Amino acid sequence: MQDALFGAEAERSAALALLALQIEWGADEGLSDLGIDRFALAETEPASPPRHPASEHAEPSAAVAIAVGAAPLPTPAQASPTRALSRPTAGRPAAAQAAALAATAGTLAELRAAIAGFEGCALRDTATNLVFSDGNPEARIMLVGEAPGADEDRAGLPFVGASGQLLDRMLGSIGLDRSRVLITNILPWRPPGNRTPTENEIATCLPFVMRHIALVAPDILVLLGATAVRALTGQTQGIRRVRGRWQALAIPGLAAPLPCLPTYHPAYLLRTPLAKREAWADLLALRERLAT
User: Fold this and answer.
1) Are the beta carbons of 243 and 262 closer than 8 angstroms?
2) Backbone angles phi, psi at 107, to 5 degrees
3) pTM for the whole thing?
4) Are 107 and 132 in contact (CB under 8 A)?
5) Judging by DSSP bridges, how do beta strands 247-249 and 134-135 pair with one another?
6) 168-to-93, 158, 165, 218 alpha-carbon distances in Å
7) Do 136 and 180 form a contact (C-beta atoms < 8 A)?
8) Is the pLDDT of residue 239 over 80?
9) CA 73 – CA 75 distance, rounded (Å)
């Protein structure tokens, strides 16, 4: 009897360990060995309830009012502004919700709280932690990467894994550290399995990044990798073509365009060591700009 109980407990522990490993690898769906007859399911699904006629003439939402410059309408029953604006609804895309929500943030603390309450991005449901920023909010330099990885997801801080260690060494080579820069990402949540962010995920979270930059108002913006460059500048050229070339980036809420330097993401440098020579040239250009 004891042997049977011990065997069952061992099988349970092994199954839990396997499940934990699959989650760590980014598995977020379960597949059955048996096929599913979708036609049969469609026949048994209840019909959608008829739409209430009043919904055809509903009042415009607060997000729409903000977008056109009109005074926003009061939310029903004094609902929480964060929850009311962030809850996905028909006819109001998640990116528009994010833009309206970001516009209400007057401080970095308010922006972080707004992102934490935002329900328009599915990555929030699969991530362990929100990864907002690290470093000095009053620094002259702001660095923007792609998305958190597994280490960042666990720690709730950007660039703490192997890429982050390389980034620290890169900054140190020109006399900088995290007390003199602010670091964030295009996405505040880790994509499952560290996959590349989708265009929809980037578009949804971009208003938060823009507001983050506006609130910090750095002197210089450094874009780490192709995803950050495409998201913030709209350029579709490869990172090897645009890196090292200073650009002027207009940010809503800032009076003047920001000097912006695209360069390689540290993760790319770990995979392509020969590119470190070019990255070093970019760092020297950054140091020279800081000296002016």
Assistant:
1) yes
2) -140, 165
3) 0.70
4) no
5) unpaired
6) 37, 12, 5, 19
7) yes
8) yes
9) 6
Residue 37, CA distances (Å) to 29, 42, 121 in order: 19, 9, 30
Comparing CA positions, the residue from 137, 179, 143 lying closest to residue 286 is 143
* H-helix or E-strand spanning residue 261: strand 258-263
**pLDDT, position 59:** 35
Q: Confidence band (pLDDT; 50, 70, 90) for 66?
A: very low
CATH topology for 130-291 is Uracil-DNA Glycosylase, subunit E (3.40.470)
CA nearest to 81, candidates 106, 59, 58, 55: 106
Q: What is the arithmetic mean of pLDDT over 81-97?
A: 54
What's the pLDDT tens digit per position in 129-178? 999 999 999 999 999 999 999 999 999 999 999 999 999 999 999 999 99
In the chain, pLDDT over 70 holds for what percent of residues?
A: 68
Give the total residue count for the chain: 292
Annotated domain spans of the chain: 130-291
